[in-house]
Structure formats: structure tokens, C-alpha cells
Amino acid sequence: MKCRKCGEKASIHMRQHKLALCKDHFLEWIPEQTERFIKKYRMFTRGEKILVAVSGGKDSLSLWDILVRLGYQADGLYLGLGIDGGIEYSHESQRLTEKFARENNFKLHVVDIEREYGHSIPMLAEISHRGYGKPCAVCGLAKRHEMNRIARDLGYDVLATGHNLDDEAAVLFGNALHWSSEYLLRQGPVLPESDGLARKVKPLCRFYEREMTAYALARGIEYIYDECPFAEGSQQIYYKEALNQLETARPGTKLTFYIKFLEAKQSGELFVEKETDRKNLHTCPGCGQATSAPGLCSFCRMLEKAKAEAK
Ligand code: AMP
Ligand code: FES
Ligand code: ZN
Ligand code: ZN
Asked: What local confidence, expressed as pLDDT, does residue 165 receive?
């Protein structure tokens, strides 16, 4: 197989795009495509300040690398979750994130949940009895809350995460299986800013996971290979496996599934937001973030419960 651009030996063949490229041309192709998606979905401009949420995994570290290579103003945010699971997951992911930032001279903000709130994520999950013994629900809630808070407090215009196509297709699959219209309505490459919440974007949402792994390796980015130890056996993983089977039988299935969904939504054929759908938002008296019901938001309620139980 030869590189389509230069005819040298190809190092990656992307069957879904009918495209083979050598390492150098692949390393150019990824940022070019990212730039195309940023423009197509109107994610942000070079005048805006971007906060990249970095977990130490291949996607978010690569995203940070790509945005800076493209000339965007992108700083990083690492959230210390206090997850061990026998592999020192949080410790190792923080070490690799800090190393990456230091070696590239990038600005990284590190916020530790335990230092901030007195309890790590697994502790909060245990005290609040949410999630049936798994901290993932509490973790998701805390990550969303903290990313929003920090983006706002530090004056960033946009918050970027490293979700790739495999992530987005799996979420879409789950939402479609349950016809969760509220989630389907909100799923997409951009979630516009609202009531003090920063805009959220996913610039890698059209890249296959395999392409991101290839990018990280080709750029020599050292990342944490292990998934969070609590992810094992999750619904998301089953959905990913099911989609991978479909993809093997028909290359391009995942991409078509996701893109046709976005197109249908944009054309107004599916999941159109009505004025009445837009719930009246309230302000949480604890943290000042927007919430759907009056009173404390779910994150602040969880903290209250943790405080009460700790007494
Ligand atoms: P995940 O939910 O683990 O698949 O991660 C999705 C995205 O959330 C990643 O690509 C990151 O952008 C962000 N993220 C996950 N964990 C962290 C963390 N500990 N600190 C900062 N950002 C994170
Ligand atoms: Fe949050 Fe696994 S529980 S990353
Ligand atoms: Zn080439
Ligand atoms: Zn709150």
C-alpha cells in the first residue's frame, strides 16, 4: 500500500476513507482535518481562549498538541479524581499530563477534587450512595461541574474535550436504543454557551479511535494506556464492541451513523428544539451554576450529603 500524497510506503490505511498515508502525511492530515471540523461546526476562532480538559489519555493529549500546532490559544486542565484501582490510575495519568505540559512548555491547571472538597471521587461515591457501588456517575457529575466552574472562573471562552468518534457513536447508540430525546437533542460537536456556562466542543468527534492512537504514537506522545479501572463492564464498552463488529463487516458504519445523525438534526428533520423544550434554568445558591430545578444543583446536593454523613 502506497501513500496517496507521495507514493512512499503507507504507514496507515483508513479503509473507511479509502485513504492510505505515510507517517509524515498522516501527521499533516490529522490537523488539517481538525481545522476543517473546527470551521465546519463553528467551534472557536484564533482570538478565543480554549481550555482543553486533559485526562492523560491519547485523545485529550493529542487534541492539545493539535490545537497548539494549529496556532490556537489552548491551555490544559487536569482534574485529580483520586482513583487508584490497583494501577495508581490517577497518579500515573497526572504524571504523564504534567510531563507532556512541561516538555512542550504548555500551561496546565491542575485541580485536585479531594483537596478542593475534602473527598476523592470514590469517597464521594461511597458517602452519597449514588451509582450502585461504581463511582462513574459521581465522577461524571463532578467532572462536568468542575470543568464548567474552572472555565468560568479562569475566563476561558471554550472548553474542549477529547471525545473521539468511537465515544460519540457509542453514546449515540445508547441514546437511540433508549430514544432519550433530551440527550439526543444535546448531543453534537458543539454545545453552545448558556447562563454562565462555557461553550463545549469536541474537535476530535469525527476521528476513529484507531486514528487517534496512530497520531499519538506517531507524535511520540506518552499517554496512559489503561482505561479507568471502573470502566470495566460498562454499557459504553458493550456498545463500542457492537459497533466495532458492524464496522468490521462494513467499514465506515460508525462514521455514517454519527454524521447522518448530525445532518438529520441540522436539516430540522429530527430532534428539533422547541421553545417550550428549553426549561427555565435556575441559579444554584451553592455554586452559582445554572441548574434545571430551583435549589441546590446535583453536585452541591451531593457535597451537602457528604458533609452531613461525615459528621
Ligand atoms: P472519558 O469520559 O474518560 O472518556 O473522557 C472524555 C474526555 O473528558 C477526555 O477526552 C478529556 O477531555 C476529559 N477528561 C476525562 N478525565 C479527565 C480528567 N481527569 N481531567 C480533565 N479532563 C478529563
Ligand atoms: Fe471517573 Fe472512571 S469513574 S474516570
Ligand atoms: Zn506520504
Ligand atoms: Zn451548585
From this structure: 98
81 found inside a domain: yes
Nearest CA to ligand 2 atom 3: 136
DSSP 229: G
Domain count, the chain: 1
Residue 132, pLDDT score: 64
**E runs forming strands in 154-280:** 158-160, 190-191, 199-201
CA-based Rg of the chain, rounded to a whole angstrom?
20
Which ligand is located closest to the Cα atom of residue 142? 2
For residue 35, the model assigns a pLDDT of: 98
pTM: 0.94
Q: Which helix (H) or strand (E) holds 214?
A: helix 209-218
**From the CB of 237, is ligand 2 less than 6 Å away?**
no
- The DSSP code for 31 is H
pLDDT greater at residue 214 or residue 230: 214
Domain encompassing residue 206 = 46-310
**CA proximity to 167, closest of 194, 192, 187, 137:** 187
